[in-house]
Amino acid sequence: MALLTADGVRVEAAYQPRAGSRTSPPGTPAVVLAHGFTGALDRPGLRRAAQVFAQRAAVITFSFRGHGGSGGRSSVGDREVLDLAAAVRWARSLGHERVATVGFSMGGSVALRHAALYGRERPAGHGEHGGRTDAHSDTVVAVSAPARWYYRGTAPMRRLHWAISRPAGRLIARYGLGTRVQAEDWDPVPLSPVEAVPMIAPRPLLIVHGDRDAYFPLDHPYSLAGAGDPRSTELWIERGFGHAESAARAELLERIAHWVCTRD
After folding, report:
1. Cis bond before residue 202 (omega within 30° of 0)
2. Which InterPro entries does the protein's record reference (predicted)?
3. Which of 40, 69, 95, 264 is the most buried (most CB within 10 A)?
């Protein structure tokens, strides 16, 4: 399936009904999974997550712009909100009244910003990409997400910034990692994840982070959770967990799926 974003980018996507049925019955929640940078809908980590979530809900996976079989170029978390909005809108067009977004790493930052910019009642402007209200999420999970932009405090993030900011790095990303990155800098700089979090309430928000995350240390999840409404925000710090979907074990994914599907 190819989805068309609000800015005209074609994004590849796939729909998986809840396990045991060819079509998900009315009332079944849908979970939209948003992968990390250099991921795609056919990568093993995302496929494993989809299989776990499909035990409880219908699942939509997609490849962000510049990744996999999608068109365009990656803006590394900015205009990707339009990709996620297209996937959520598709879930609602299929009859799902409850839609959760679960994002990993870059996808986690996108899920937070998407929830802030697409509200239940009306599009949230904030000078960015606010759009149709049928693209809003009801429940949000951010796994291994950064709290702020331009973080270079760890070796993996310094390598990533080199890869996206230098012509040679972008060539390596394209031909070595299958990810096409735009050369232009952000203009304007988008709303940061930690700035987005207060705009999500009263919708349920779960922040999940590992104590062995090599990309973002624990001040990131603590900052995100601290910015949220305590009545609707939860924080899980997972012992032994590394980074994003590739490191997420089935037990953790099952707990997240249970949390998502038991929210009102």
Report:
1. yes
2. AB_hydrolase, AB_hydrolase_1, AB_hydrolase_fold
3. 40
Pick the closest to residue 77 from 155, 171, 183, 192 (CA basis). Answer: 192
Question: Contact 87/18 with Cβ under 8 angstroms?
Answer: no
∠ CA 92-94-99, nearest 5°, is 35
d(C-alpha 248, C-alpha 174), whole Å: 25
Q: Taking every pair of C-alpha atoms in the chain, what is the biggest distance, in angstroms?
A: 50
The pTM score is 0.93
